[in-house]
Amino acid sequence: MDSIRNEGSSAKRMSTGRRLLVIGIPVLLLLLLGGIFLTRYLDDQKLKEQQIRFDAEKQELTETLQKSYIDVQHQDIRLFALSLAWSVRSELMRENYEQIDQYFVELIRQTGFGAVMLIDPQGVVKVASDRNLKGKSFYALYPSASINEERLVSYPLSATKSLFVLPVMGLNAKIGTIAFVYTCRSFVAP
Q: Which residue ranges does UniProt annotate as crossing the membrane (predicted)?
């Protein structure tokens, strides 16, 4: 009898153990797979957030670099403008307008330079790289700009294009003004 009881209780134990294995292993596998998928999903979300943050920082840095790049070009123009004013001054005092015209034609050939003009103290364009501008009023061409400045001034025309106005000083007074349009090169992010 004892052996019959042992067999019955052993069968109950095996069936309980078997049930545990049959139910427990799939549940354990489902929990493990769920944990793997959950970890993967959370990692993907973190990666997307980092990518968005990286793109925003990259855009901000690119805009800052673009502005700095344009500022450096404007500083270079300021250095160049001083020597241009002295060259034009010496030819203007001799009334050598042909030589000034040659300076302007050479400037136009350089990358970034647009219209270049010499304006008399009354505001009339005396020499211009664009022949159609000669004899016209500077104020009609650029109403918001002034030729009464005592130093180089830039007027933004667009994000990368500016009008530079530079006085040409004689011994006692201003004898003219140089105005030119310059388009700054854009910073190209690698």
A: 20-42
Contact 169, 89 (CB under 8 A): yes
Q: What is the pLDDT of residues 73-126, one digit of tens each?
A: 888 888 888 888 999 999 999 999 999 999 999 999 988 888 999 999 999 999
Q: Is the pTM of this model over 0.85?
A: no
Residue that has been written with the tokens 């209780």 in this structure: 9
What type of residue sits at position 51?
Answer: Q
CATH topology of domain 73-183: Beta-Lactamase (3.30.450)
> For the CA atoms of the chain, what is the radius of gyration?
39
Domain boundaries, the chain: 73-183
